[in-house]
Amino acid sequence: MIAEERRRTADxxxxxxxxxxxxxxxxxxxxxxxxxxxxxxxxxxxxxxxxLLVVRSGFDIHRANARLAARMARRPAGELAALLREHAEDPxxxxxxxxxxxxxxxxxxxxxxxxxxxxxxxxRPDRLRISLDFLVGGRAVGFVPRRRPAGLRFEAADLDWxxxxxxxxxxxxxxLLLGLTGRRAALDDLSGEGVAELRRRI
Length: 202
Description:
The chain folds into two domains: 91 residues, no CATH class; 77 residues, Nonspecific Lipid-transfer Protein, Chain A (2-Layer Sandwich). Helix content is 54%, strand content 5%. A three-stranded mixed beta sheet has the order 2-1-3. Strand 1 and strand 2 form a beta hairpin. The two termini are 29 Å apart.
């Protein structure tokens, strides 16, 4: 699943115009191309270069990650796509978040790219369920603060998936995925008495 998502992301990145690549994504201040750079850096950056950036960033992982993404994004889009394909089947399994974390990273960042460009989400239901289970399962370190979903019930309108007890938040699986990971752009696509609380927590 991860390998195929990397290849699909490569196809997407390669298809975008310079204007689309320069569009601001849903992921903080990153452009679409910087999001692609982040996804490439996760599999193609050398360990030594990454460690050096961590040191130079005062051991701030998030800051180092942003700098690495920006550095990788200086490459042509075609090269980023080629690197994603070349490393599509990289077997590295991150600690704590494991393979579900990698799959979720690809799916969430895919929407960070697609939504601002008005492109259909193109998510696979079986993979989306894995990511939704991961995000509420307590191992999503760096994805979802533990308190964000606590005491709320999430119900997917287009998938056989629901989780939690409390005020209901209902929407498509894609909107739930983005809401759980703190993307405010998806909140208007959600309904239910729990949405106001989710908005406050984000």
